[in-house]
Design a protein that fits this description.
This protein has 289 residues and is α/β, with parallel strands linked by helices. The chain has one domain (24-287): Ribokinase (UDP-N-acetylmuramoyl-L-alanine:D-glutamate ligase, 3-Layer(aba) Sandwich). Helices cover 42% and strands 14% of the residues. The protein has eleven helices and ten strands. α5 (117-127) links the parallel β5 (107-110) and β6.
């Protein structure tokens, strides 16, 4: 993304995105790891969003009990069943099942549908060394809580990590109270602390302090599963060869505009995350004209 010299965030607009178009020659693989016992649908939302963004191949790694159902509901994906802990979470033992998959995954999205803070931390400790050294990584949901407990896990992912927190997760990452979260300043601090690109409620921050902001979002996006869609979108744009900030800027704008398009049918508070996924291709097509 082009740098902005002002301390104020550069606005994310259709014009900016058209100046920084993402190519279509690269259509890489996205692996989404999530889907514990009680949250099986989250990786499906992330994965289909990644495909809608242009990923070429989708792989879902989910709780073994849900693998068959997800394989049917997302027939475009390969599905890998993972062992559960007694609580229904996915822990570090799951990484052994992915030994043949991780080397070929150019983008790895971790977090949608994970549960259990300790189990997810154990999973990340085993997973990070197994991810290909040139793969880009998106952390979302419980993976962000685990990262806040063990910030050193970000070090091997320096220069290839995107974080997509909500305000609760941002508070954990910034070690502050949720009411003290300021989208811009908090995003900047998190980006610097974890050497990652951060996408927080329309703000995109790089570790060097460069920032962008999209103002297209609305209250309807604060709905269950919406963050899973955003994480998947980011992963999908990364799979097309976008750089980290470029992918985050495209993802936050497409996500927000897709939500706007649904207002006439759903109002501001009635949209469903799966409806965002269906709207994404039209938004991208208009930006790529």
């Amino acid at each position: 993304m082009p740098p902005n010299s002002s301390p104020d965030p550069a606005p994310i607009s259709p014009a900016l995105l058209r100046e920084t178009r993402i190519g279509t020659d690269d259509r890489g693989t996205v692996l989404v790891l999530g889907g514990a016992r009680t949250v099986p649908g989250a990786p499906a939302l992330s994965g289909t969003a990644a495909l809608r963004a242009g990923a070429g191949t989708l792989q879902l790694a989910v709780s073994e009990r849900h693998a068959g159902a997800l394989g049917v509901s997302v027939p475009e994906s390969s599905v890998f069943g993972l062992p559960e802990t007694d609580s229904g979470a996915i822990g570090g033992d799951a990484v052994d099942r992915l030994a043949d998959v991780l080397p070929g995954a150019g983008t790895v999205v971790v977090g949608p549908g994970l549960t259990g803070a300790e189990e997810t931390e154990d999973l990340l400790r085993r997973l990070v060394p197994a991810i290909a050294p040139d793969a880009r990584v998106v952390l979302d949901a419980f993976a962000l809580g685990a990262l806040s407990r063990a910030p050193e896990l970000a070090e091997p992912l320096s220069g290839r990590l995107v974080l997509t927190p909500n305000r609760t997760e941002a508070a954990f990452l910034d070690d502050c109270a949720e009411e003290d979260v300021d989208d811009l300043e908090t995003a900047i601090r998190i980006a610097e602390r974890y050497d990652a690109v951060v996408l927080l409620f329309g703000v995109v921050a790089e570790p060097d302090g460069r920032t962008w902001r999209d103002g297209s979002g609305h209250i309807g996006l604060a709905t269950s599963g919406s963050g899973d869609v955003l994480a998947g979108l980011t992963g999908g744009f990364l799979a097309r060869g976008a750089d980290l900030a470029q992918a985050a800027c495209w993802a936050t704008h497409v996500h927000a505009v897709a939500g706007q398009r649904l207002i006439p049918d759903t109002g501001r508070t009635g949209l469903l995350a799966r409806e965002l996924v269906a709207e994404i291709p039209r938004v991208i097509a208009e930006l790529e004209r």
